[in-house]
Amino acid sequence: MAKIRHNNILDTVDSVLSVSKKNGIIHLHAQDDMLTGQHLTLKGRKVLHFGTCGYLGLEHHPALKQGAIEAIQRYGTQFPMSRTYVSNPLYAELEQMIQAMYQAPAVISKNCTLAHLTTIPSLIRQSDLVILDHQVHASVQEAVKKMLSQGVTVEMIRHNNLEMLEDRILKLRSKYERIWYMADGVYSMYGDFAPIKDLIALAEKYEQLYLYVDDAHGMSWAGQHGTGYVMSQMDNRLYRKMVLTANLGKAFGACGGVSLFPNEEWYHKVNNFGGPLTFSVQIEPATLGAAIASAKIHLSDEIYTLQEQLQQKILYFNLLLQTTNLPLVHESNSPIFFIGTGTMDMGNYLVQALLQDGIYVNLATFPAVPAKNIGIRITISLHNTFEDIEQLVERLQANFAKALQATNQTQENIRKAFKMPAPQAQPAAAVAAVAAPAGANELKLQVYTSIGALDADLWNRHLGKRGMFDWDGMQFLEKAFSGNGAPEHDWDFRYYQVQDAQGDPVLMTFFVTALYKEDIFSRVSVSKAVEQERELNPYYLTTTGIIMGSLFTEGNHMYLNRQHPAWKNAFKLLLEELYQEQEKTGAGNIMLRDFDAGDPELDAFMVEQNFVKADMPESCVVTSLGWTTEAEYLAILTKENRRNYSRYIKRYEQYFDVEVRSQLPEEELQHAIRLFGNVKERNLGINNFLFPEKVFREMNKDSRWEFVTLKLKKEFGGTGMPVAVCFCQKNAANVYSFMLTGLDYEYTHTYGAYRRALFQVVQRANELGCEKVNMGISATLEKKRVGARPHPKVAYLQAKDNYVLEMLEATIAIEKD
To answer: Where, if anywhere, are coiled coils annotated (predicted)?
Structure first.
């Protein structure tokens, strides 16, 4: 099969961030002539700054500024050569001070990302196993990804799940020399901590377990000499089997990454030839000068005064939050706080409202957090006064209440998304009167469990003309995917209709709740790796999903009157019903699929509802029908495809007997099912479960279905059984749908069986006088050769969490399909 178009994660992220950029809450530029850390000027408005990572405010400390100035005066603006040859004189002084702080050998890099890229490949071997915490920083994951191509095995566990970690150790310790668990000390979004003491206890229990911890967000505000949260959990002495990464930026006030080692052997291995460390430029003298000044503060009693002052402000913020019903996701003594909003729509609204009200906070969105766990990230620093914090809580509480009503969000939904306790009664002062969205009360949602409950003419008028899912086609699907006795083959159908006050449909669609493979649209190399695991565990990485349309059909499964002023409210009504269905069924994901690509209005709307856009395989359609001769057919093809017709299709005509059958005898039906199995086994570009036999038996009984078969003639070695079978349906609107194909691959190359079969499908639809042929997804190049036009399609996905998505990205080496 030809390569299909796969989702690019960068495109998905871009579609999410573009909405926030359009709303004016990311990619902003400060407009200040001078910065103090307490305020920013954004879009002409002076706002309180609650988004910094400079928790101790050291970036504005006079000693650091003076250290930077003196370093430039003595050593210039840069020292442009590799450290392999000569290092700037300031490096030696800084390294000595860092080692004095940690009492451990240290390697200094230009930043933490380079520290990971330097250290991880230097220490990890092919005989090692790497286990990533789901929420470990992206810079660690990127460094580990480079090890996949070198044969290193990588796995991922759910966040802070030590039971899952120990299970992996027990199952895999006989296969690997060392097992490295990689985590953050303080997690940058929610401000929660790695269970360092429990991890060390586990490492003592299993000698093969080693720890690699990034404490970038724990630096300076915790620990003896400001060595960080992780060191504070180890009696301020580096554990014998831990590599620790610290940050000379953020709370430290300068810039740079530090890798700390429990022994001289590892230190020398990284320091002597640590890839990027050797080839990257050195830290600028000004930054080294500032870092030395900061290190002097860390080695003095001043650091403890700063730590205590910050803790007082963190405590004060916690106490004020306790007087509200704001959904604080994780309460701790870290300077990072996360208030859940649940939806992107509410997150955008709240950040915008706070900006207007003089407060700047960060929006936390996908992929930094799961799509259903959007929120605002607030940081407390020494730049913030107690009065500033009071203003933050007061304005946050008021604007949060407004945002709830303006975006139709509820405290209950937010807390469900974050698995938090139900809210207490809302203080009266925090409730603001905001009008409901216009038209929301004029719509009526109806839900049906069978197509038989809907009027056939109404359904066919709005949806039935599009593909095989007309009213009769839905009856076929309900029969075929019920009573099969396997969870992947028995689907629950739901039909949704939203009408306005006049009874006119604004939205109509159908969904199935079904078990499916979570790598359904992953790259072939990813699915190949996953299928190896499924040989032992058939339901590995499968989940129950609520899927628009079905896993059998393709095409635009939703009628949506975009001219209606209340179409967005109609869509929101549908989504609310889907969320309730998700709660009842425990479904992990919701997938709305087969929308036309290139629709920025719909993209923005879906992002605001917490869905992420993903590219789907292109849908191929033939509409140039009505020809009566071969010459007329060739005239509708491009010049290149006319050549392809002669080269790949016409030349094989003599080898086949072609039949169109309304029914197949039992022996041929079983043979056709086996041929379909051949295609399914090879085509992992759309990786799903094999359809049950009942589907094919229902086809064989249904007059709307037919089988286009190609049999190799006996003089060319034919056996009398088909070498290609096309499973096709003609609907009530005269649309022909090529739904499935079965192939004997022994004949596809030598005799061009697949290409010839595609042409026979188009020819059959033309004979029937059909208006168009739905040629399905995948094999786009081959289908273009017979006159099909590809239509880019997208899906909108929402998962309860993004663990599987990130696990597939981080643990399987991507190969060219």
So the answer is: 386-413
Query: Is the pLDDT assigned to residue 63 strictly greater than 90?
Result: yes
β-sheet bridge partners, residue 41: 46
Classify residue 279 by burial, with Cβ atoms within 10 Å: 0-12, 13-18, 19+. exposed
532 and 418 inside one domain? no
Whole-number Å distance between alpha carbons of 442 and 499: 8
- Provide the 3-class DSSP secondary structure of residue 642: helix
Tell me the pLDDT tens digit for each residue of 406-431.
998 999 989 988 989 887 654 443 33
The H-assigned helical ranges of 732-797 are 748-751, 753-767, 780-784
Helix (H/G/I), strand (E/B), else coil: 568 = helix
The tally of domains found in the chain comes to: 4
Distance (Å) of CA 456 to CA 88, 357, 465, 469, 773: 80, 53, 12, 12, 22
CA 301 to the chain's CA centroid: 45
| CB of 351 closer than 8 Å to CB of 376 | yes
Chain segment 285-320, per-residue pLDDT in tens: 999 999 999 999 999 999 999 999 999 999 999 999
In contact, 334 and 185? CB cutoff 8 Å = no
Give the other-Cβ count within 10 Å of 251's Cβ: 30
Q: Beta strand pairing status for 656-661 and 705-712? A: antiparallel
- The rounded distance, in Å, linking the Cα atoms of 120 and 116 is 6
**What mean pLDDT do residues 257-266 have?**
96
Residue pair 365/376 in contact (Cβ under 8 Å)? The answer is no
What does the pLDDT read at residue 429?
A: 37
User: Are residues 408 and 394 part of one domain?
Assistant: yes
Task: Say how far apart CA 228 and CA 46 lie, in whole Å.
Answer: 32
∠ CA 19-610-182, nearest 5°, is: 100
How many residues are listed for the chain in this entry? 817
Q: Mind listing the pLDDT tens digit for each residue in 757-774?
A: 999 999 999 999 999 999
Question: Tokens 């090890």, residue?
Answer: 147
- Count of H-run helices and E-run strands, the chain: 28, 26
CA separation for the pair 392, 605 (Å, rounded): 29
What is the percent of the chain where pLDDT is above 90?
A: 78
Does 283 map to a domain?
Answer: no
- Token readout for 423 is 């809210």
Mean pLDDT for 482-493 is 96
pLDDT tens for 520-557 read 878 888 889 899 999 999 999 999 999 999 999 999 99
Band of residue 617 on the pLDDT scale cut at 50, 70, 90 = confident
What phi, psi does 283 have (nearest 5°)?
-65, 140
**pTM to 2 decimal places:** 0.85
What is the C-alpha separation between 55 and 258, in angstroms, rounded? 18
Residue 210's closest CA among 174, 261, 247, 164?
Answer: 261
| Same-domain status, 463 and 552 | yes
Dig out the tokens for 693 from the structure: 């036999």
User: Containing H/E element for 204?
Assistant: helix 196-205
Residue 807 maps to a domain: yes
Cβ-proximal residues to 654 (8 Å cutoff; 6+ apart), any chain: 713
Burial (CB < 10 A; 0-12, 13-18, 19+), residue 502, is exposed
What is the per-residue pLDDT across 568-611, written as a single tens digit (0 to 9) for each? 999 999 999 999 999 999 998 999 999 999 999 999 899 888 88
| 592 and 656 belong to one structural domain | no
Q: Tell me the average pLDDT of the chain.
A: 91
Which helix or strand (DSSP H or E) is residue 358 part of? none
Q: Which residues contact residue 815 at a Cβ distance below 8 angstroms, ignoring those fewer than 6 apart?
A: 523, 524, 525
Which pLDDT score is estimated for 434? Answer: 35
Task: Give dist(CA 175, CA 39) in Å, integer.
Answer: 55
Q: Which domain holds residue 175?
A: 88-278
Alpha-carbon separation of residue 7 from 187, 607, 617, 812 (angstroms) = 28, 16, 9, 16
**Domain assignment of residue 68, yes or no:** no
Q: Return the biggest CA–CA distance within the chain.
A: 95
